[in-house]
Amino acid sequence: MNRVSLSEDVLISLGLQDNVEFIRFSLVRRVEHFLLIISFVALAATGLPQKFNAADWAQWMLTAMGGIETTRWLHHFFAIVFIMEGIFHVVYAFYGLLRRRVGLEMLPAWKDVRAFQHMALYFIGKRQAMPKFGRYDYRQKFEYFAMVWGWLLMAATGLIMWQPTWATNYLPGILIPVGKMLHGWEAVLAVLSIVIWHGYHVIFHPDVFPVDSSIFSGRISRMRMINEHPLEFEEAVGRPAIVEGLKRG
Ligand code: HEM
């Protein structure tokens, strides 16, 4: 397998290992992610027992949280945190673009389609090496836009359920039960994808186990930059991230 995971020994022998770290996430982005963890977990913990209220575990959780009214109050409180965080994220991204502090690296591009194709061929043995990625690979972009889509759907359907009388002044009444169904099942989908997909990439993936701490520290090691973001590494240090045994197509 050409999955590039150079051991520290190999890097030392190539003279590439030192204590250099790269800044990956600014303090604002780290605080944003922290707020997202707190609000998302709290919304799942207060929402899912309402959806599956006939189950014993759900009844136990509702009682532990102080009853249905307190649980609903908590759900609404963390919904406000979740929505405000999303609005802040967009405003701050535009500010960063205007001040030229961030680029458009997160936007999907044709190179992502080509990288996906390349990766599929690599997995079936038709390519010698994995594609080279920049700051974000196509899997990270996919996850980011799944989050954007999920945020829009949960905020819209949640607000409709929260203020049904107001919502039906502008929208057909059928949207209340439809919104409730979409909200509940999108919650299940979101929790499963966070636990399985995100959980694998940030905890159980062999390159980062037991945890990818970059979103908390803001830093990423030089070895991981070379392995996971070689194009960004090349741009940052001005020389190719290709050494013997580290070949990408
Ligand atoms: C984006 C902001 C959100 C708003 C405004 C919102 C609002 C609501 C409201 C008003 C309800 C109806 C029950 C109640 O009054 O508490 C509800 C139910 C629920 N929420 Fe949310 N919510 C949001 C985000 C989320 C998120 C992120 C999740 C899960 C990760 C979630 C999971 C649920 C579930 C599972 C239910 C029960 C649905 C059912 O009974 O079928 N919510 N939400």
Topology:
Elements: H1 8-13, E1 21-23, H2 27-51, H3 56-64, H4 68-98, H5 110-123, H6 138-162, H7 164-167, H8 175-204, H9 214-217, E2 219-221, H10 222-228, H11 230-237
Antiparallel strand pairs: 1-2
Helix pairs in contact: 2-3, 2-4, 2-8, 4-6, 6-8, 10-11
Bound molecules: protoporphyrin IX containing FE.
Protoporphyrin IX containing FE binds at residues 40, 43-44, 47-48, 50-51, 72, 75, 79, 82-83, 154-155, 158-159, 161-162, 180, 183-184, 187, 190-191.
Condensed summary:
This protein has 249 residues and is mainly α.
Write a structural description.
- This protein is mostly helical.
- It has a domain of 77 residues.
- It contains eleven helices and two strands, in the order H-E-H-H-H-H-H-H-H-H-E-H-H.
- The protein has a two-stranded antiparallel ribbon.
- Helix 2 packs antiparallel against helix 4, helix 2 packs across helix 8 and helix 10 packs across helix 11.
- It is elongated.
- The two termini are 14 Å apart.
- The C terminus is likely disordered.
- The structure holds protoporphyrin IX containing FE.
